[in-house]
Amino acid sequence: MKKITITFLTLLIAIAGIAQDISGSWNGKLGPLRVVLNIQKSDTGYNVTLDSPDQGAKGIPVSEFTYNNPDMHLQIDAIHAAYTGKYKTDSLTGTFTQGSKTLPLTFVRGTVEPVKHPQEPTLPLPYYSEDVTFENSQAHITLAGTLTLPKKTGSYPAVILITGSGQQNRDEELLGHKPFLIISDYLTRQGIAVLRYDDRGVAKSTGDFKSANSLDFANDVESAIAYLKTRKEIKQIGLMGHSEGGLIAPIVAARNKNVAFIVMLAGTGIRGDELLLKQTALILHAQGTPDSAITKINTTNKGAFDIIVNNDDDSTIKKDLTSYYKQLGEGNPEEEVKEMMRPWPWIKFFIKYDPTTSLRKVHCPVLAVNGEKDLQVPPKDNLPKIAAALKEAGNKDVTIKKYEGLNHLFQECKTGSPTEYARIEQTFSPLVLEDITKWIKIRTVH
To answer: pTM to 2 decimals?
Structure first.
């Protein structure tokens, strides 16, 4: 769900004496993850950064680099990690340490080949595409996006795409994939118009992303609806949200009668604190973390989440969280609280919010789908809650489906771990695209 943003920052370290040339790109594997070490030589020393292609991280700053042939040491403060190794002509062999974990890591010379994404469309496109802007007057921001229509003239049902958590552009671009580009391309080729847009404060949209929560993003969606209602080419408007977007879509549909249908792609059905605990346990288990360590981590997390859930005043929450981490006697309490409260408006709302609150008020047709191997929004915990809430609403047009072998991004995968996302060529399952399109067409007037 949340994605890490890496700031490019490198440190020049002077290296005394004569040493063999270690500059260049080196790649290795840290468990299942590919890691790239970039060493650039200059007149005064070296510029050193680290990449994690499978996590979409590039240019991670190496805060300290020492090399006394053959011994090498890297300190990477940004991720609280270090690497100690020895240089040979064609390899760097050593150990990587992060927190309490120590893993062997060997680098060899060479770059990592980028993963191809064959589903991405190529020009010319067989449909009309227009860059558009629309206003959220309540928030005083301008949102920028792309509207695709089967043809420039005509009347079509439309879908507004709602991104998942984290700062996303109109393609919901992450880890080299562009899921919303693939979805919009497929739907438009099938006669359905699509509006996708950059999140507030991202790319060409104005506003402050970091000060917003899911309710603010729901207001942005309503602005998109209002804009489409001004377009003569659009006759029905539906919403399709992925992950957090699948939480936002019902919020909007529950209060806006202009929503003709919603599609929840890995949308949530349980409260945020419960979801985060389940997500953490599943992902850590897939990464081989011992059960005892997982239990300890989630016990700590639950204590912090309970403080947030049971309080509304921010100063009280901060005070209680600081005391809580001091009692645990681990790490730096102030830093722990600062890190947790960094995206505070978002995390506070998400942890406390129960999605069934809005789902119980949704009366338009709903399609809720999940991948069976989704470790971020596990289907066995979320789909039944979604179904029950919609039944309580008296909604008679509800379709719930779980797809075998698909992960949180709806890719065909092996384990469902987020570490696989970037390495998979497929961006979005063709089967799910086909099923979604058929479902929408049945529910729209042609």
So the answer is: 0.84
